[in-house]
Amino acid sequence: MRTENACSRRRTPLSVRLLTVVVAACWMLVSIPAWGQGEGFNATWITSSPNTTGGMPNYSTAWWSYIDATPYNTGDLCSTINTILIVSPGVESADGIVIDARGISPAHCAASPWSTNSSWPWATILLPPGIIQISSTWQLPEFTRLIGEGPGVTTIQATSGFGNGNGIPNPAPMVQMGGTGNCGNGTDCQGIVIEHLTLDGNNSAEYGISNNFAQELSYVNDVALNNINGTGLYIESPGGQPPPNDGNNSGPYTNIYCSNDIICAQIEGTTGTRGIHGLTANWTKSGVGGVAVYVDAANNTIEDAYISNYDEGIRIGSQGPAPDNTLINISGGGSQGVEELIHIFATTSSSSTCPVTFAGTTPDNVCDLTIIAAANPGTNTVIQDDLNSSTAATSYVGLYTLGEQFFSYNNANLGHTRFTTAPGGSADTNLANWSFGAGNPTGSGCSVGSLYSCTGAGGASCTYTLWGCASGSVWKKIF
User: Fold this and answer.
1) What are phi and psi of 21, to 5 degrees?
2) Whether 253 contacts 226, CB under 8 Å
3) What is the pLDDT of residue 92?
4) Of 204, 315, 210, 304, which Cα lies nearest the Cα of 257?
């Protein structure tokens, strides 16, 4: 016999159950409040002493951490960004905001987004795809991040007759990292970032990106620099400016793509950057381009660079002191090739920190240079070393290290200490190297001063262990 208690037999009426669900839902809305965002407000924040509702924190205060720029569209992208920067209520310069302008159709900008003030909030600007035409410089304040949708997707293009603006003298860059008016008056500009976009000089702008103010936490990544009449990426320490008005400690500069720039990249006068890692410089116009990269500064690394159809790839020390630099994995190519992939100049400067042996001697601009893995196929030159009047014409050089100048007892300059693994050949000039093989060296045509280690097992394969290339370019036994 089955038994039931009163509770098991009780059935709650449908109307009561529905009422219970509605009441529970209302209670949840009251206990955990939710508020719609105002125009442009897409974030909320909690104060240090928040209000509470039903024991739960009240997160109702809309804030400008993330701003949709679309409701503020003035018809001009730069004006829209400028409006948001100016009217951001309660935003202080150290409060970071994100302005999402990806929903605005790009067009001509009448003026820079940072053109009417000198104190700006720290901001990340998300740019839309398409072409943004500018007629004057964008001067990025401290802790400003300019981020596009990718090279070839978001393009900032100089208009015909691009010129100075915002107090920046000609020749003006398209984008300047820091500067007087917001940071740079003897202060260290920090946190300026440019990523994922193209700067098209339109054969009107003399500079693409200029950095002579931004230092720590400032870098450029994944940026194409096209059709610049002067220099695509210019990192410098300007003369006459009080320190730290320079690009020291900035970088790294990664994934830089240059097309038809007179100069792709130039580092001048700084005492050290975090280097350029990943650079492609291509000249596609008629004739051969000039010099792709100038290095006239200390303590830099240029790594993974491919240069095509320029007369010279990397020129070192032609304009100023360039000690303590490292080049890694540098290659040349293209239908017209690169006549000289790496050119080391023999210029001197009283401001150079390269050591000298005798007092009163002017130091060379270049010393303590290391080149690892340089390749320039065909009959072109890999390394032209003017300091030692030597040429490495071999298509591949594994290691080339250039030390410091040294003198004889009567103060005669004998050149620089040097070591290279380049094998040496008939097209090379004064290329003393140290090579090895399993048997005795044979033939003539070696570079005078070179050494050869015979590593065979003895007997006929190696009658002597160490050989030297003597006058007449012939091998002579040493021991």
Assistant:
1) -60, -45
2) no
3) 55
4) 304
Given CA atoms 302, 279, 372, 418 in this order, what sign does their dihedral have?
negative
Residue matched to tokens 């006549």? 339
Q: What is the 8-class DSSP label of residue 214?
A: B
3-class state of residue 95 by DSSP: coil
- The Cα 226–Cα 200 span in angstroms is 5
Which CATH fold would you assign to the domain 61-433? Answer: Pectate Lyase C-like (2.160.20)
Beta pairing class for 322-323 and 366-367: parallel
pLDDT of residue 259: 97
Q: How many Cα neighbours within 13 Å face the side chain of 384?
A: 19
- The 3-state DSSP class for residue 392 equals strand
Could you give the count of Cα atoms lying within 13 Å of 226 in the half-sphere of its Cβ? Answer: 15
Please tell me the distance from the alpha carbon of residue 36 to that of residue 168, in angstroms, as a whole number.
43
pLDDT at 38: 47
Tokens of 228: 């610049």
Give dist(CA 115, CA 258) in Å, integer: 28
Mean pLDDT by 10 residues, the chain (479 residues): 45 48 42 40 48 49 74 93 78 74 92 80 94 95 96 96 68 88 72 98 95 94 97 84 72 97 96 96 87 97 97 96 98 91 95 82 93 91 92 89 76 74 75 84 80 76 89 89
Integer Cα distance of 138 and 166 in angstroms: 8
Cα diameter, the chain? 126
The full set of domain ranges for the chain reads 61-433, 434-479
The tokens for 219 are 């870098």
Q: How far apart are CA 433 and CA 99, in angstroms?
A: 57
Q: What's the confidence (pLDDT) of residue 436?
A: 83
State the Rg of the chain over Cα: 32
77, 104 contact by CB (below 8 A): yes
Q: Is 315 helix (H, G, I), strand (E, B) or coil?
A: strand
β-pair partners for 469: 475
Please name the helix (run of DSSP H) or strand (run of DSSP E) that holds residue 299, with its range, or none: none
Q: Which residue has the tokens 């000609």?
A: 170
- Concatenating the DSSP letter of every residue in 222-286 gives EEEEES-SSEEEEEE--TTPPTT-S-TT---EEEEEEES-SEEEEEES-S----EEEEEEE--SS
Using DSSP bridges, classify how beta strands 276-282 and 253-259 pair: parallel, antiparallel or unpaired: parallel
Q: Are strands 108-109 and 138-140 parallel, antiparallel or unpaired?
A: unpaired
